[in-house]
Design a protein that fits this description.
Elements: H1 2-5, H2 10-37, H3 43-72, H4 86-93, H5 95-126, H6 132-140, H7 147-157, H8 178-185, H9 199-225, H10 229-237, H11 242-253, H12 255-270, H13 274-279, H14 289-299, H15 303-334
Helix pairs in contact: 2-3, 3-15, 4-5, 4-15, 5-9, 5-12, 7-9, 9-12, 12-15, 14-15
Subcellular location: Cell membrane
InterPro entries: ABC_transporter_permease (IPR051393), MetI-like (IPR000515), MetI-like_sf (IPR035906)
Family: Belongs to the binding-protein-dependent transport system permease family.
Length: 335
């Protein structure tokens, strides 16, 4: 039965998955049978019967790992020695980790604002147009692509072929990256978009913006359609139109949705891992917290520092979650 606790091969992992599914079915079947046999059971028994398995699952799969990670963050790399706040001091004082924190903050500030701005502008422009459904479908398509898939697509977009000195222009290697080919058509030299910092971070963020703009457009388009037509008509009768209508009527009306969209994208961006891992591996000054956590924990086996970075990521995301929930409740109250 060692495979049940330490599954290493693919077949053992599948067996663990099937065992977990069978255990879930057995537990829920037992709960339903128990409730059916006790139709007059006290209310607290029913509540405990249905919530108990879920709470135990959360405690085992979420609470226990979280507490274990917090504990590990106060120990050295192999967990054999208590080092106090040393791992956190390393994360905040050493230059390479300060760069990681700075990059993560830049992602969290830039991506949500630009994605929301693009999504809002697009939603306003295509609203009630003849091609509204088609245009929205095109904008939403990147949301159906995984982060890894999007990273691979854009890595080809940024592909660079080195120029060979002393070779005529017509004999140079063909640029297969779209952006570099466009630069050549404009008479400019191709660029190494993913190698040259700090702008390579911006080119990585473009991928996240490309994905998240569709999400922002969908939510904000629904919010715009919810604005009462009487409000827009009254504004037009007062001579308000165009940019002023957008600024003084549309923006205030969709403000709760704007806040929810910005904070939701910020939470997703704070955890960005796949794009950086796929396109640069965190090299050339593009490292972020989630990828650094993976590098420290599973490639350098410094579990203490990796756990400290995971805890920092958790702490950073808490205010966004709380604010997001608060805004969603506020929006529900307004409705």
């Amino acid at each position: 039965m060692d495979w049940l606790l330490n599954a290493n091969t693919t077949s053992e992992k599948f067996l663990v998955m099937f065992a977990a599914i069978a255990l879930f079915v057995l537990v829920m079947g037992a709960v339903l049978l128990f409730v059916e046999k006790l139709p007059r059971a006290p209310r607290w028994v029913l509540v405990a019967a249905f919530l108990g398995p879920a709470l135990l699952g959360l405690a085992f799969g979420l609470v226990y790992p979280a507490l274990s990670t917090v504990k590990a963050s106060f120990y050295n790399g192999d967990g054999s020695k208590f080092v106090g706040m040393e791992n956190y001091a390393t994360a905040f004082t050493q230059g390479e980790f300060q760069q990681v924190l700075f990059n993560t903050i830049a992602w969290t500030l830039f991506v949500p604002l630009v994605s929301t701005g693009v999504g809002l502008t697009y939603a306003v422009l295509v609203d009630k147009s003849r091609i509204e459904k088609f245009a929205k479908t095109l904008m939403f398509l990147p949301m159906s692509i995984s982060m890894v898939g999007a990273g691979i697509i854009w890595k080809f977009m940024y592909e660079y072929r080195a120029i060979i000195e002393g070779v005529p222009a017509d004999k140079q290697p063909a640029q297969i990256g779209l952006l570099n080919q466009v630069l050549i058509w404009m008479g400019l030299e191709p660029q190494q978009f993913l190698l040259n910092g700090p702008w390579n971070n911006m080119f990585l963020m473009v991928v996240m913006i490309w994905i998240q703009s569709g999400f922002a457009m969908t939510i904000l388009s629904a919010a715009i359609k919810a604005i009462p037509e009487d409000t827009n008509e009254a504004a037009r009768l007062d001579g308000v139109g165009g940019i002023k209508l957008f600024w003084y009527i549309t923006i205030p009306s969709v403000r709760p949705a704007l806040v929810v969209v910005v904070t939701t994208i910020a939470m997703g961006t704070l955890k960005v891992f796949d794009i950086v891992r796929t396109m640069t591996g965190g090299n050339f000054g593009t490292q972020v917290i989630a990828n650094e956590f993976y590098t420290q924990s599973f490639r350098q086996f410094n579990f203490g520092l990796g756990a400290a970075l995971a805890v920092l990521l958790f702490v950073f995301i808490i205010p966004l979650v709380v604010y997001n929930v608060f805004q969603m409740r506020k929006s529900e109250e307004i409705r």
